[in-house]
Backbone:
């Protein structure tokens, strides 16, 4: 959450408002993984240290991370003018 809020603050400071709503939407839609868990209905492994109340697939942490960091890579790619930097981002 701290990375998300920091990124939003940086976008506001740099006046890159065109990325704010898409970032919020991409991370927001990744929260739909809770609904997907109910549809897929995959149980958690029987050997576990912590008993989680929800199903196991898809991982909400992984889904939100890929949405956030994927969009962050997109912003860096679009804002970079250097071809070498763009290749590194890809």
Residues:
């Amino acid at each position: 959450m701290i990375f998300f809020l920091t990124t939003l603050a940086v976008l506001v400071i740099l006046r890159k408002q065109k990325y704010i709503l898409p970032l919020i939407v991409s991370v927001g839609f990744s929260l739909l993984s809770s609904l997907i868990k109910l549809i897929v209905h995959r149980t958690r492994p029987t050997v576990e240290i912590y008993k989680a109340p929800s199903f196991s697939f898809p991982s909400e942490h992984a889904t939100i991370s890929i949405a956030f960091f994927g969009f962050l890579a997109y912003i860096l790619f679009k804002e970079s003018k250097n071809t070498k930097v763009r290749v590194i981002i890809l």
In short: Residues 36 and 57 are 8 Å apart (CA to CA). The two ends are 24 Å apart (CA to CA).
